[in-house]
Amino acid sequence: MPAYRESYVFRIETDDPASFWTGHGPLLLPADAVLPENTIFSGMGQLVEIPDLQQIINGTAQRLDVSLSGVNEETIVFATEEALQIPGALVWIGRVQFDDAWQVSAVEWEWCGEGVKLTVDSDGSNGDRVRSIKLTVAAGETSRRRAPNAYFTDADQQRDYPGDTFFSHVAQISRGVVRRWGPV
Predict the structure, then answer these.
(1) How many Å apart are CA 12 and CA 114, to the nearest integer?
(2) For residue 66, which of 46, 80, 83 has the smallest C-alpha distance?
(3) Residue 19, by phi and psi: left (phi above 0), alpha (psi -120 to 50) or beta?
(4) What is the edge-to-edge ordering of all strands in the sheet holding 90-98?
(5) By CB neighbour count within 10 A (0-12 exposed, 13-18 middle, 19+ buried), where does 9 fall?
(6) Which of residues 174 and 94 earns the better pLDDT score?
(7) For residues 69 and 89, is the Cβ–Cβ distance under 8 A?
(8) pTM higher than 0.90
């Protein structure tokens, strides 16, 4: 009967790259196309949520939140200090498969995006304190900013290409008017 032996790894390309995995303790991963050298990934606690990973297709952007719970105080301090470096930083998410001896041969890098923000939360209830970190990452342009509409006029076309008559009838076009294409 096959055993389910996989974990996720995260690499955030800040000034001092942050490398974490969803297990406990250190994990040594071999160098590859993403990792310039053998790298030790730190265990980061319990992964609360990681949504389905998708790649950009036809310009559709994806924004996702990765939540971690049960992180230790050192990780919270590190995250708070490094939070300002997250916006714009390259973020890699990969999956590692373990063999029967719990050894890793390679990482399958599944997603690459850009960091948006990092939020830290520490909630205390019934005498217990639960620390969590939420990393927001995006692939593609996920802001709501858009370029203003462009209007093509004959004057603009004449300035760029004197003598071109392609836009000569634009001023006559309005709702409900049908223009025949081609020579009149």
Answers:
(1) 9
(2) 46
(3) beta
(4) 27-29, 39-43, 18-21, 6-13, 90-98, 104-125, 128-139, 62-69, 46-49
(5) buried
(6) 94
(7) no
(8) no
